[in-house]
Amino acid sequence: MALPDYYLxxxxxxxxxxxxxxxxxxxxxxxxxxxxxxIHALSRKIESENPIYLDGVLIAxxxxxxxVYRPNNYADYTFRLTRNPLAKNxxxxxxxxxxxxxxxxxxxxxxxxxxxxxxxxxxxxxAFIQQMKQKLYQQRIAGGHVVSIGDVKLISSDESDADLxxxxxxxxxxxxxxxxxxxxxxxxxxxxxxxxxxxxxxxTAMLHHYPQEKDHWQTTSVKQGxxxxxxxxxxxxxxxxxFSAGKVEHARSNEHATQFVExxxxxxxxxxxxxxxxxxxxxxxxxxxSELQSNDAEIYVINQETN
Length: 307
Fold this sequence. Notes:
Oligomer: single chain
Helix content: 10-25%
Strand content: 35-45%
Distance between the termini: 5 Å
Largest sheet: 10 strands, antiparallel
Structural class: alpha+beta
Number of helices: 5
């Protein structure tokens, strides 16, 4: 894939009450689709005489405060829920469980142009930066409100990966970890030939405690020595044909086609930016639509492939 023309850098974007339930099986940091969807919406709102496109998104997290509670160290976590206003008749509304998280993230976004004179002079760049900052304030990211934005910069694509990585400090960058998933799956299959990649994902959320001497326990995890691994929701796979608009009863919208899907999961890793000095371009998340070779089912996936 060709290099972008510029990078748009949003520094320390603070988001309040983002959606912490990223999929039916995972919670904590919001789904990557929430960030890509927000940047796609931002790209469509760009006001410019010549086309400007926002493409891949790099996500760096400075702080992640999931709104959960547990009364003691041995209890399960529960979401902190909000009390809704009373109904018109004064009765108490039902409580809908929702996961919320407060975030402090930085976003590095690829910018592509068609006309070389677009964003050529300082005045154009300044107006574009101000427009992007204002429009980002006006929309949500992963369901959360944008509370503040530290700084916005338009950076030339000639900037080195090392300099771009330094801009993200201190933070952790979310990258895909398919090789770790394959290795963990292979290890589990040595013990159980029927183990699958889903078993490997569940294993990354486990701690194994083994008794040693009196009052001493050894705790092990498959993640030891592999870094900060996390299960990720990476897209959807179709499980039904594509129904035309209005054909499915009780669909959310009768103006668009409808299709039933199931989630696609993968493994990700939080990496310190300095480890990406030589391959930062591989840390940008992008949409991809294709078909599975096994059953020709359409898939809509988010990954970090560069081609």
